[in-house]
Amino acid sequence: MEILKIYIAFFKIGALAFGGGYAMLPYIRTTLVNQNHWVTASKLNSYIGLVQISPGPFTTNLSAYVGFKTAGILGGLAAIIGISTVPFILVSIAYCLFSKMQNAKTWQNALKGMKPAIIALIFSALISVSGSDVFHIREIIITIIGAYLLLYKKIQPLYIILIAAVLGIVFYI
């Protein structure tokens, strides 16, 4: 029964949370921590850090890890299948529609309208993961350095996380 519960929870996340992994975090946090109590907020933050360095899609890795920690291998599989079901169906439908209307002005305008909403979702995830830490000068410095290295120097995220870890050690000695 736990496997089915995991599938349904991650199915809902896949169906209702849009905008990519980080934009989905507030809803994922609510589902995993507050509703199902599968992990604590602190453990979820640790899991997020762990899956950051894993290859592959963030939400799929996070789902697999939480599912595995909750109910073993079958729990991990149930979580992956659950979170992937609705997006798979929607992408298949979108492909059919997009190929017919990719040059339509209405479609282009809709995409322009979605961008600010996605930015707001990502900002919400930043605040959710950071808590009050985001407003401390040391965390702001690490964030700026990480963003600069990622956006302008095109350094791999794994190296940015390692650099941030070293900066955290240095800043808090």
TrEMBL record:
It comes from the Bacteria. Keywords: Cell membrane, Membrane, Transmembrane, Transmembrane helix. It is found in: Cell membrane. One of its GO terms (molecular function) is chromate transmembrane transporter activity. GO terms for cellular component: plasma membrane. The keyword Cell membrane applies. It holds the Pfam family Chromate_transp. It is a multi-pass membrane protein. InterPro entries: CHR_Transporter, Chromate_transpt. The keyword Nucleotide-binding does not apply. Its main location: membrane. The chain crosses the membrane at residues 7-28, 73-98, 118-149, 155-172. Belongs to the chromate ion transporter (CHR) (TC 2.A.51) family. This is Chromate transporter. It comes from Clostridium thermobutyricum. The lineage of its organism: Bacteria, Bacillati, Bacillota, Clostridia, Eubacteriales.
